[in-house]
UniProtKB/TrEMBL annotation:
The lineage of its organism: Eukaryota, Metazoa, Ecdysozoa, Arthropoda, Hexapoda. Residues 1222-1249 form a coiled coil. Residues 340-417, 434-502, 521-591, 609-686 form the S1 motif domain. It is found in: Nucleus, Nucleolus. The keyword Nucleus applies. Keywords: Coiled coil, Nucleus, Repeat, rRNA processing. GO terms for molecular function: RNA binding. One of its GO terms (cellular component) is small-subunit processome. It comes from Zophobas morio. This is S1 motif domain-containing protein.
């Protein structure tokens, strides 16, 4: 019984202070905070039991355990809730929870774990945790710490017997007492145990164990003392672990000091209340049972004066009242209902913390107030208990969902929330490995992202946040609440869900998650998890892993050795082939097995230029996946290949659905994992009867249709449908635009027209230039052709919508509708709903003045907005009366005549107006937006338009101003051409007296007329015919004819197609023929002159000409600005300037051009000997030229010999770097790698070496090798300043030549370590601006000005921000930055 003077129980004398000091305090439930604060005092009077009883009756214990009651060092009965590799989650009574780390189970278990980890036996380590503790097991736990956090309370506990029995001595144990111990070892006749008490041995005989029961070393357990062998030095306990012995009632001679949670006692009931039971056990020990601990027991049997078997939960530290439960050690049952199941529940009773419900026949559930609040009406102030009573009635049935099961309370935690009841992804059981899901970022932690899909929480490891190699700054783009696409990578046995965000895994349709799916010769996508010298470990979904051996990897690499550690990076997505199983290990390869007729071969059977039908199987943000041909081969259409109009591409992508058929698709690339198909190119090739060519068939000046791929620092990359060439083609900036112009902004896969400049079949290489897209020079015929194509595409989209019975197209253009206004935004635009729930929009200028939300207005349909799935409506009655209900395109006016129109609506492709003339039948007119050159024309009521033609039910018009400007331009071009031809005729007439000269003159005429601009011809012959009489309203086409046109046609009999319509070659054969004929005539003239006898005058003239010829030659010899053309000229010039490497290099080039290689070599040697030895740079240039010569035309041996010589006479580093660049440019990568390897071993400390090699790799698009060079450089150069310089320079290289996402990560890493480096912030911004990433550059500056730096540094940053916004922003953004600067100055003043 209690022996504390603060809570006297009577019947025992107070001992002396000296005796108390000598006696060891062995109270298990002592709380240090209270014990230290109290001093033991000797009290003289005796206290009787009646007073003790009165004190007990004055206590009013109620409720059960709560976090407020939990204190450090308390002992509580707990139940195992969840077991993981690192910790055990436990439950206490009162719906409270704690955590036990694996090193707090028992000392013996901790020792075993350490040995497992040392030996690397991870499997035994993982299994051992689950062997010693099991879900649902009851254990005593001691509180180590408790803290309150934002999300609740964190309770750390231990179940180690050493901690549980820490206040006891070996003499304190009694026979029949329940103790907590753990297995130390297995002996011949039983188990050795320990209770964690010094000098106390414990033995458990096999006979005292339940039949079939076995224990693991380190496992904790309850046992009962059967025998005590005691001495002054030590005690030996013989115990029993049989359930019948453990569950026996404890003897009455025990005191409060012997109590342990889980111990069974006999409670004498003193009082029964609706809230609980009060009583006594042992000698004057007081107990309390809360109503939640006897809810399943018949309350009628619980009467005052009777006894009941109860089990100890915990002892309240202050009052020393023992809280008990009627549930025993062996009575905890498994849940009958699965978590997440939806069941019908009956309301039992409502309590202040929630309500109890009945599930099935006997199961009890509980719904907390927190869950109930979400189902109640939202009011500012209300009594929650009363609100629950009015909403949920006792005895009624409601649907609920089971959220959790509490073993300790034998209680289901449920909810009535409709959102959770309807949630499809409620638990891990509702998900499948490989499933693609929408995720929400819940939390960003150091090791990854915590995400949610539905009600399921999961984890994205750092490795899986991006396709690229992980760095800390990759997570900077994620924010809490962000929505991302993910895929389920694995679901563990504990129900933990692992997701991946890698785009390579998301795009892959196959999912290797079972061993039986690993069929040999099949292809799958995985990711690298480990690299060794012996190979790489590839992981797939679930726990499937495979191995690519070093031998397999290098046998596939064309003789070049590859180190797997450098070839792969951790997390890299790879497409691999299954070879089979070897020693139960999955063997993989990067290439398909030789004997496999695989998908790739089938794909190659689809030739570039082949037309096929396809079926949509999946819709991605980047395009459509299809099955094409009879073989159902997987293929892909990029979004911007769906239509020639970029605006309509997005609409078409939204229009198509899975299983839709798309006919006549053109294959434009078959070298990828899936052939690339194009609907856009198919339409163009069929319409203009185009063909796809092989590389050798391409000719100079041919027009080639290309697709934009990506930007470069010095130009762009495009791709073209060439049968035997699939590489990206580089177009430098100078071949795209003038130096004064900025580089145009292209979209991915945008159509670009290019002209072939040169084709090198040896390299192979194609040189292209981009044809100008200047709208001011675009003919109206081209504009109208493009516009007609756009309208045809819109009709195609409309037909697709109509086939799918879309509500949108049921409202025909021109038809009247009634619509209800749902919302009016700040701009005055009205959003409405129509009769069949179709959504619509009324622009501000087309809405009535008195409209309000909820009102119904009448309108007329103007347009179908397929992108936003809206109907564009006009609700002004004055305009609607002018619009015919039947929009059939029929007008009583001839085409090419003029009339006026009122502009109603502006869309991306065109402007919609209504024709005002009565004879136009109140029809709508569609005008290309590109023809509306004046903004004022878009706001006029009377825009003059030319009715051009009818297409289906639409009338196409052109602004009259546009037609007039074209006519003036055409007339000027005709005048210019006429004047040219007059000059030519005059010259012809003057020379016609000489027959031979006349022939030459006619040739000149042919050359001159053939050089007339092709656009002039097309304008004269085509467009002038159509628009000549448009101003007068005449519909007759008056052809323009003149002698100039006739001569033009005669000299250009071969028709030249428009550049937008076909491939063509500009033929200059006439020119070549005329030149050759002229040369022949001159030769004949010379022969004839020799035969004739010259007169005196003629002789004088000949002498004069000879003198002039000699003078001209002398002048050429004196003039150094004229480039030498012969060896003599070079020798003469080199006498004057022998140290000019530029002149020597020209001399060498002349011989190389004439294929005189030996002479070129000898000239090079002469140059090296002649140039002054002090002019190192000049000599160096000659050495590099000679090496280039040997590289191109010599042997490997001659090249190496020359290189060794060059290294002796020049700077070794400079020479190595130059040769590496030469080899890289010529494509000799193996030789280049050899030189790099040698240079790295020689110049490890050279910053220049590392940077230049990195630049070479970047220029070759070998990004992985370039990044490896950076890492190697940082390992070799240990000086911090030089390391920092390397990091910055490599970040710039990555930004200029590499991947922008990696470049951003590099800069973020640098600034994370050095946020005060203002110059780095500025470099970062400048690089983003150069890449045209203006918005991201703005975000960088916004982040920069939030740094806490010195005033001078902040001034520089703010000045940079203001200059940036001045150049790239608006006056509003400039003002915003100035306000930020003012705010910063204000904060400085306050501090």
């Amino acid at each position: 019984m209690l022996q504390n003077d603060s809570f006297p129980r009577g019947g025992k004398k107070i001992v002396a202070v000296e005796q108390i000091k000598r006696k060891r305090e062995d109270n298990l439930f002592r709380v240090d905070d209270y014990q230290k604060a109290k001093k033991v005092k000797v009290k003289q009077p005796k206290e009787d039991s009646s007073r003790n009883q009165a004190w007990h009756m004055s206590l009013k214990p109620q409720g059960t355990l709560s976090y407020n009651k939990i204190q450090e060092d308390m002992l509580l009965l707990s139940c195992v809730r969840h077991v993981s590799n690192l910790a055990v989650q436990i439950e206490f009574s009162g719906l409270t929870f704690g955590l036990v780390t694996i090193n707090a189970i028992s000392d013996t278990f901790t020792k075993n774990l350490s040995s497992c980890l040392k030996t690397g036996d991870n499997e035994s380590y993982a299994l051992s945790v689950r062997n010693v503790v099991k879900i649902g097991q009851l254990m005593p736990a001691k509180i180590i710490s408790i803290k309150k956090t934002e999300k609740g309370h964190e309770v750390q506990a231990t179940v180690n017997p050493t901690a549980i029995n820490s206040e006891r001595v070996h003499k304190a144990f009694k026979k029949g007492e329940l103790v907590w111990a753990n297995i130390v070892s297995e002996l011949d006749h039983g188990y050795e145990l320990t209770v964690g008490v010094e000098n106390c041995r414990v033995f458990l005989p096999f006979k005292n164990i339940d039949k079939g029961q076995k224990y693991d070393v380190g496992e904790p357990l309850y046992c009962v003392i059967h025998k005590i062998d005691e001495s002054n030095v030590a005690t030996t306990l013989t115990v029993s672990a049989k359930q019948e012995h453990v569950s026996k009632i404890q003897p009455n001679d025990l005191s409060l000091n012997h109590l342990i949670p889980g111990m069974k006692v006999e409670l004498l009931i003193e009082e029964v209340t609706p809230q609980g039971i009060r009583g006594q056990f042992f000698e004057n020990c007081f107990g309390y049972i809360d109503e939640t601990q006897f809810s399943k027991v018949n309350a009628a049997t619980l009467k005052e004066g009777t006894t009941v078997d109860a089990y100890v939960l915990f002892v309240e530290p202050i009052t020393k009242v023992t809280y008990l439960t009627l549930r025993g050690l062996g009575n905890l049952t498994e849940p009958k209902f699965e978590l997440g199941k939806i069941v019908s529940a009956k309301i039992l009773r409502i309590v202040p913390k929630g309500l109890y419900i009945q599930l099935g026949k006997n199961e009890i559930g509980f719904v907390t107030n927190k869950r109930l609040l979400k189902t109640l009406p939202k009011e500012k102030q209300f009594d929650i208990v009363q609100a629950v009573r009015s909403r949920y009635h006792i005895g009624k049935q409601y649907d609920c969902r089971i959220l959790d099961y509490n073993y300790m309370e034998q209680l289901y935690i449920c909810t009535f929330e409709k959102q959770l009841i309807k949630e499809p992804n409620f638990s891990a059981k509702d998900l499948a490995i490989g499933q693609c899901v929408k995720l929400i970022v819940d939390k960003i932690v150091p090791k990854g992202l915590i995400v949610k899909t539905g009600h399921v929480q999961g984890f994205v490891p750092n490795m899986h946040v991006s396709n690229v190699q992980y760095s800390e700054n990759l997570k900077a783009k994620f924010s809490v609440g962000m929505h991302v696409d993910g895929r389920i990578l694995n679901i563990t046995t504990e129900g933990n869900v692992i997701f991946t965000l890698k785009q390579g895994l998301l795009d892959s349709e196959k999912c290797l998650s079972k061993p039986e799916d690993a069929v040999p010769k099949s292809q799958h996508v995985g990711f690298v998890v480990q690299t060794k010298i012996s190979g790489a470990l590839i992981s797939f979904y679930g726990d499937i892993k495979g191995w690519i051996s070093n031998k397999t990897l290098n046998s596939e690499n064309s003789g070049r050795y590859v180190d797997p550690r450098e070839y792969f990076f951790i997390g890299q997505v790879v497409s691999v082939w299954i070879l089979g199983f070897k020693n139960d290990k999955l063997q993989l390869s990067l290439n398909a097995p030789n004997d496999t007729v695989n998908l790739e071969e089938a794909q190659k059977n689809i030739a570039v230029g082949e037309f096929l039908n396809g079926t949509v199987v999946k819709i991605h943000s980047e395009g459509l996946k299809l099955k094409v041909g009879q073989e159902k081969i997987e293929a892909f259409i990029p979004t911007n290949h769906l239509s020639n109009n970029l605006h309509l591409c997005q609409i078409l992508q939204k229009t198509y659905q899975e299983r839709d058929k798309i006919n006549s698709l053109l294959c434009i690339n078959n070298r990828n994992s899936a052939p690339i198909m194009s609907r856009r190119e198919s339409l163009a090739y069929k319409k203009h009867s185009l063909k796809t060519y092989k590389l050798r068939q391409l000719k100079k000046n041919m027009i080639l249709r290309c697709s934009f791929e990506e930007n470069s620092q010095t130009g762009i990359y495009v791709s073209a449908p060439i049968k035997d060439y699939s590489e990206k083609i580089f177009i430098p900036t100078e071949n795209i635009c003038n130096s004064e112009e900025s580089l145009p902004q292209f979209e991915k896969q945008q159509h670009i027209l290019t002209k072939v400049l040169n084709v090198d079949l040896d390299l192979p290489k194609i040189d292209l230039s981009v044809l100008s897209n200047d709208s001011s020079n675009t003919s109206p015929e081209d504009v109208l052709k493009s516009f007609v194509e756009t309208l045809e595409e819109i009709k195609h989209i409309s037909d697709l919508y109509h086939k799918k019975s879309s509500k949108l197209t049921k409202h025909k253009i021109g038809s009247p509708v009634k619509c209800k206004i749902q919302n009016i935004d700040l701009n005055g635009t009205c959003y409405v709903t129509l009769a069949n729930d179709t959504e619509g929009v009324i622009p501000k200028h087309l809405k009535p003045s008195n409209c309000e939300v909820g009102s119904v207005v009448e309108g007329v349909v103007l347009e179908h907005n397929f992108l936003d799935n809206l109907v564009e409506i006009c609700a002004l009655n004055s305009i609607n009366q002018k619009i015919n209900k039947l929009q059939d395109g029929v007008v009583n006016k001839s085409f090419h005549s003029s009339c006026t129109a009122k502009i109603l609506l502006i869309t991306k492709p065109y402007v919609i107006g209504v024709l005002n003339d009565k004879c136009c039948n109140r029809q709508l007119v569609y005008i290309p937006l590109s023809c509306m050159t004046n903004i004022s024309d878009l706001c006029t009521d009377k825009l003059k338009v030319i009715i051009y033609r009818r297409l289906g039910n639409r009338i196409i018009g052109l602004p009259k101003k546009y037609v007039r400007s074209l006519k003036k331009k055409t007339e000027k071009q005709l005048i210019r051409r006429e004047s040219k031809l007059k000059i030519i005729r005059k010259d012809t007439e003057d020379i016609v007296t000489d027959e031979d000269e006349g022939i030459s003159s006619s040739s000149d005429i042919i050359i001159e007329t053939s050089s007339v601009n092709q656009n002039e011809k097309s304008i004269t012959n085509e467009y002038s015919k159509q628009f000549h009489n448009s101003e007068n309203g005449s519909d007759e086409e008056a052809p323009l004819t003149s002698s100039t046109d006739k001569s033009y046609k005669e000299t250009n009999s071969e028709p030249v197609l428009s550049g937008t319509n076909a491939f063509y070659i500009i033929n200059d054969d006439n020119k070549f023929e005329s030149e050759s004929s002229s040369e022949e005539e001159e030769n004949e003239e010379v022969k004839n002159s020799k035969k004739k006898k010259m007169s005196v005058t003629e002789r004088r003239e000949a002498v004069k000409k000879e003198e002039e010829r000699i003078a001209k030659i002398e002048q050429q010899l004196i003039d150094t600005s004229i480039s030498p053309q012969s060896a003599e000229q070079f020798d003469r010039m080199l006498l004057a300037n022998p140290n000019s490497s530029e002149l020597w290099l020209q001399y060498i080039s002349m011989h190389v051009a004439a294929t005189e290689l030996d002479k070129a070599r000898s000239v090079g040697r002469r140059a090296i000997e002649t140039i002054n030895m002090t002019l190192v740079k000049e000599k160096f240039n000659i050495w590099v030229a000679l090496l280039n010569l040997e590289n191109m035309y010599g042997t490997k041996e001659s090249f190496e010999k020359l290189f060794e010589e060059a290294v002796k006479y020049n700077d070794s580093l400079e020479m190595y770097l130059s040769v590496i660049k030469v080899l890289a440019a010529s494509g000799k990568l193996l030789e280049m790698e050899e030189k790099i390897k040698k240079l790295r071993s020689k110049e490890k400390q050279s910053t220049q070496m590392w940077l230049e090699i990195g630049r070479v790799y970047y220029s070759l698009n070998k990004f992985r090798e370039a990044r490896n060079i950076k890492e190697a450089a940082l390992k070799s150069i240990l000086d911090k300043k030089r390391q920092f310089d390397l990091l910055v320079r490599f970040a710039i290289l990555e930004c200029q030549l590499g991947d922008q996402e990696n470049a951003i990560a590099n800069f973020e890493t640098i600034l994370g370590m050095h946020p005060s480096k203002v110059n780095i912030w500025i470099i970062y911004v400048d690089q983003m601006v150069k890449r045209k990433n203006i918005e991201f550059a703005r975000k960088i500056l916004e982040k920069a000005v939030t740094q806490k730096l010195g005033v001078k540094l902040m001034k520089i940053l703010f000045q940079k921000f203001i200059n940036f916004e001045t150049q790239h922003g608006t006056p509003e953004t400039v003002e915003k930055v100035k306000n930020l600067a003012k705010g910063y100055i204000t904060t400085l003043g306050e501090t």
